[in-house]
Design a protein that fits this description.
The complex is a heterodimer of chains A (516) and B (296). Chain A is α+β, with helices and mostly antiparallel strands. In chain A, the strands form 2 sheets. A 7-stranded mixed beta barrel of chain A has the order 1-2-3-4-5-6-7. A 5-stranded antiparallel β-sheet of chain A has the order 8-9-10-11-12, covered by helices on one side. The longest helix of chain A is centred in the middle third of the chain and has 37 residues. The radius of gyration of chain A is 35 Å and the shape is elongated. With 296 residues, chain B is mainly α. Chain B is 65% helix and 3% strand. Chain B has a two-stranded antiparallel ribbon. A two-stranded antiparallel ribbon of chain B has the order 3-4. In chain B, α7 packs antiparallel against α10, α8 runs antiparallel to α9 and α10 packs antiparallel against α13. The chains are: A alpha+beta (516), B mainly alpha (296). At the A-B interface, α4, α9, α10, α11 and α12 of A face α1, α3, α4, α5 and α13 of B.
Chain lengths: 516, 296
């Protein structure tokens, strides 16, 4: 942005003035910083982000310094915004689809190694029961030696700071006098006690291993030169399994947590072949299609009918009708969806109260799949018809009135008018907009997520999946719901949806014959 | 006015009025109901459209004022609604201003200047705009997680992240403004350039003042889109105090903690201003909306 503002007065400057040199210095500084960032990101194995920074900064430098790219300066910020926040995440998601990135394989190899190496275990025979004595604000530790005698510390202070503190112990035959602290007082001091490292006279180190004892602890694993780990308890070697992204014991047991590896098309194959995923996936896909088509059909039907009525010149008070009719469109969707969620509540929602009073019915709007789906269609028709009505009103005005007069002369009814005159004339300009509506509802995440959250659940699915889930909300739940968090699988499904949406986008573009 | 009239026309006019009124009653039922519920006592009360014992309990809580019940106990506001509204408005205003600035300059170049790759850029922007951000949320989260390590006000749980993320959605606004620019005669700018103005001056002093109406439309559209944005904010914002209204509002209706009455008051309080703005601006908005096809 800053370099953008600086370009305002570019063309007139011939001599390198103060402003120009300032501009050059600033650009140089930005580029150097960016280069540093790229190197850092590359060193951290974040190749995608390194490439992104490199691309954004180098194209920015070119666009804002080349005379030939003058026009591009105007479009650069918008294109860059789109590139960073739409296209990059899209490509990154496709990339994740080919990895095993998930709750169990969250970190990279290096961090997983660090985690394993930080694990420790208690050495045999190295347990020392302790007692804690307090005098004023200072404490003394007394450890019972395995044989005879004690190990005691000098008086020390306990602070809440989480820094490791080393404490020297020395041997003593006499116990520290006075009364030891009770266990509940020790519990209160657990945090600071855990940060203590006690050093023995013979050089060994002890850490707190329970509320009653300190113990000698050693790291469980040692890193070998080839990156594999040796288990210090058994001497067993743990090799890296690069296919699955885990450390593996000799008997094939995998050691959690795993790390992220590329697993090829496995996620895609899982969607196609694993029955507990394919079944729900197909069911959700069909419902998504039905939902989008149904929404287009209902909103279009209601909208066209209302537009026709409002178009009729014998109807008075059109402005009032119009304002009232587009009210559902004016209310923010996240509010009206939640309002419906409350109104449709099975137990004390107003809609069931009215239905009970009139017909004695109490439909289970949220627990029965068919009812839940009807509710979603009803709500979405309510939300969507004003847009269709506005579209149709615009299009109807372009139909010459004498066509209707001619048809009236021939004795045609309203239905003939609709099917023989109105529809054929408006369908062509309407089609691209209908496709856009279809695509929008195909991905109508907000409606599902706020209204039902996908409920009721599909039985027998191995991932979170509901009968009212759309593909998008299904993907979202696989990625973000507590029981799911399988980012790789979610990204694979997202990639499939990208292909579908891309197809729809191209179709829309072709049909609308946009002039560029 | 049609010359040929059927005899039954009068009845049909009355039937149409009746049908429209019934339909409107059905459509408005949920909205009226919510207003009514916001004045009822307690969170589980049922009753008619006009509350029998109107109470300001929920409104007081929605405005953040603790309410003293008749039995003397005091209810505390369950959520900081006004803070959420303020967060939403703050994010929406800043991101709309940014969107307006950037998409206006882009639209100018697309409408007036000649440069390589223009048709491709325009078309691909439209295509990529159809991909829902929900699907790349994992990547967006990773992106801002990364950004936050270098620029803290752009990290996860910051409003900066939500504002910046909204800059991905400019394509439709660019198309709208570009369409308007193309309806303005370019001879004015050409005259200015002949008189020695730079391209930028021609844009800034000639074209922009002529385009104020469409800029207002785009601002309002961007504002409404931002206020109602849910998926990205739901992943990028974590703390209760940081949430926007769209993300926070649903917390009223959890199964375990069902605050129907409190929700109703909060919904009316926060939804009403946005609704009124939309209705007030509708005659200008409709054109922009129908050409873009943003909202379903």
């Amino acid at each position: 942005m800053s370099s953008y503002v600086l370009t305002v007065s570019d063309k007139r400057m011939r001599m390198p003035s103060f402003a120009t040199s300032l501009k050059l210095t600033a650009a140089l500084a930005v580029n150097l910083m960016a280069l540093y960032l790229v190197v850092v990101l590359y060193a951290q194995q974040k190749i995608a982000f390194a490439l992104l920074v490199l691309l954004v900064v180098s194209s920015a430098s070119y666009v804002f310094f080349s005379k030939r790219a003058y026009a591009h300066r105007y479009v650069y910020p918008a294109v860059a915004g789109m590139g960073i926040f739409v296209i990059f995440p899209l490509l990154y998601t496709v990339g994740i689809g080919f990895t095993n990135y998930s709750a169990s394989n969250l970190l990279d190899l290096e961090r997983v190694q660090q985690y394993h190496l930080s694990q420790s275990y208690t050495l045999d025979g190295g347990r020392y029961p302790f007692k804690l004595y307090s005098a004023q604000d200072r404490y003394r530790l007394q450890l019972q030696q395995p044989g005879e005698g004690y190990l005691v510390s000098q008086p020390f202070a306990l602070t809440d700071a989480e820094v490791e503190k080393t404490l020297e112990l020395h041997e003593s035959n006499a116990a520290v006098g006075g009364e030891a602290l009770k266990i509940r007082d020790v519990i209160k001091l657990k945090k600071p006690l855990q940060s203590l490292v006690l050093s023995l006279p013979d050089g060994g180190q002890l850490r707190m291993s329970g509320l009653r004892e300190f113990a000698a602890r050693a790291p469980v694993y040692t890193l070998e030169a080839d990156g594999s780990l040796r288990d210090n308890r058994s001497g067993e070697r743990l090799t890296i399994n690069h296919e699955k992204g885990f450390y593996q014991r000799a008997d094939g047991e995998l050691l959690s947590p795993g790390f992220v590896v590329t697993i090829g098309a496995d996620n895609f194959l899982r969607v196609l072949t694993d029955d507990s995923i394919r079944g729900p996936f197909l069911q959700i896909f069909l419902w998504t299609l039905a939902f989008s088509a149904g929404t287009v059909l209902f909103t279009m039907g209601v909208g066209l009918l209302l537009a026709n009525l409002l178009q009729w010149d014998r109807i008075g008070g059109k402005a009032v009708y119009r304002t009232l009719l587009i009210l559902p469109y004016a209310v923010p969707a996240f509010i009206s969806i939640l309002v419906f969620k409350g109104l449709f509540n099975q137990n004390f929602g107003e809609i069931n109260l009215v239905l009970q009073g009139l017909f004695g019915l109490r439909p289970d709007w949220f627990s029965e799949p068919a009812m839940a789906r009807s509710m979603i269609l009803i709500v979405n028709t309510w939300l969507g018809y004003p847009y269709m009505m506005l579209l149709c009103m615009g299009l109807l005005q372009s139909i010459p009135q004498d066509l209707y007069e001619a048809s009236a002369m021939d004795g045609a009814g309203p239905l003939d008018n609709l099917f023989r005159i109105t529809l054929p004339l408006i369908i062509k300009p309407l089609t691209p907009l209908l496709i856009a509506t279809f695509a929008f509802n195909f991905n109508n995440f907000v409606l599902i997520s706020l209204l039902t959250g996908g409920a009721p659940d599909i039985i027998g699915a191995s991932t979170p999946a509901g009968t009212t889930d759309l593909l998008v909300s299904y993907t979202y739940r696989i990625a973000f719901q507590d029981s799911g968090q399988d980012f790789g699988l979610a990204a694979a499904i997202a990639t499939m949806i990208f292909l579908l949406v891309g197809g729809m986008a191209l179709l829309k573009l072709r049909l609308s014959k946009m002039e560029v | 006015m049609a010359i040929v009239q059927a005899k039954s026309t009068r009845y049909r006019v009355w039937a149409t009025h009746l049908g429209l009124l019934c339909f409107i009653a059905l459509i408005l039922f949920p909205l009226l109901m919510v207003i009514s519920i916001s004045f009822r006592e307690g969170n589980f009360a049922t009753g008619s459209l006009l509350p029998e014992n109107p109470s300001l309990e929920h409104w007081s809580l929605a405005l953040g004022i603790p309410y003293t019940n008749e039995d003397g106990s005091v209810s505390q506001p369950p959520f900081p609604v006004l803070l959420w509204l303020w967060n939403s408005v703050k994010i929406a205003v800043i991101s709309s201003v940014l969107i307006l600035l950037l998409s206006t300059t882009s639209a100018y170049a697309f409408a007036r200047l000649r440069f390589g790759g223009k048709p491709t850029l325009l078309k691909s922007m439209l295509i990529f705009q159809m991909f829902p951000p929900v699907l790349s949320l994992v990547a967006i989260y990773a992106l801002f997680d990364q950004l936050g390590q270098y620029v803290s006000w752009l990290g996860i749980n910051s409003h900066g992240a939500v504002i910046v993320a909204s800059l991905g959605g400019m394509a439709l606004h660019i198309w709208t403004i570009k369409g308007y620019f193309e309806t303005i005669d370019r001879s004015l700018e050409e005259a200015a350039i002949v008189d020695g103005a730079t391209t930028w001056q021609a844009f800034f002093y000639i074209l922009l003042p002529l385009s104020v109406p469409i800029l207002a439309v785009v601002f309002i559209l961007a504002f409404i889109t931002s206020i109602t944005e849910y998926p990205m904010a739901s992943v990028l914002l974590l703390d209760v105090d940081q949430l926007t209204l769209a993300v926070g509002a649903q917390q009223y209706l959890y199964e375990q903690n069902y605050l129907w009455g409190d929700f109703a008051a909060a919904a009316v309080l926060s939804g009403l201003p946005i609704t009124l703005v939309f209705l007030y601006c509708q005659k200008w908005l409709v054109g922009g909306l129908t050409s873009g096809g943003v909202k379903g």
